Amino acid sequence: MFRSILQGIVEEAEGYSAVLMGYDGLAVEQYDRPAEVGDLTSFAVEYAHILKEMKDTLGVLNSGEIEELTVRTERFQIIIRTLNEEYFVILTMKANGNYGKGRYLLSRDLFRLREELQ
Amino acid sequence: MFRSILQGIVEEAEGYSAVLMGYDGLAVEQYDRPAEVGDLTSFAVEYAHILKEMKDTLGVLNSGEIEELTVRTERFQIIIRTLNEEYFVILTMKANGNYGKGRYLLSRDLFRLREELQ
User: Fold this and answer.
1) What are the backbone dihedrals phi and psi of residue B22, each rounded to the nearest 5 degrees, phi first?
2) Between the N and C ends of chain B, which has fewer C-beta atoms within 10 Å?
3) Closest Cα partner for A65 from A92, A83, A49, A44?
4) Which chain B residue's Cα is nearest to A93?
């Protein structure tokens, strides 16, 4: 069920990959669209690490829980949406992809993903 | 001159604060709008640290240079725009602020800020 939600997000966003992952860096489910961008798993693990660190630090700084993190590089746009205390979703899109649509799709399916996690 | 550019961005975006900062965590210039959100300097230093780490890691992962990083928490939206190898700008806005406008303003003034840095 996770996989079909992730697949829907990737295909509608014309993205490369969506991963449901824990803060421990372990992927629960992943959907990759066939594309010549190589393996994005190492990215996802790295983002888990960064997100964990930010979560800890920003908690101390009293800025409230992180809801979303986005990174735009020369090659990719990455949108990370936190689901709960333990899990988040990483959507990787091409650099000139429709960022707004990616954000919308993650927000749209947030509730379904949270429900599935329970 | 930096200060007037930062002030323009903060006021037009109705943001809290804009900081021109180096990857070493030292602020070159800062403009804070009077607001009851407390001192945001500790955030900025923390983001410098995170950005530095991401820059190093993503460089290894061959994803291209980081151009923009955004973080949305329960209290804030933070948009970080890299200027060059050494400096970046952090714009902190309220959680329900106009994110798109903030991004636009940073892009608009990117060239002026880069020029000033030379």
Assistant:
1) -95, 160
2) C
3) A83
4) B63
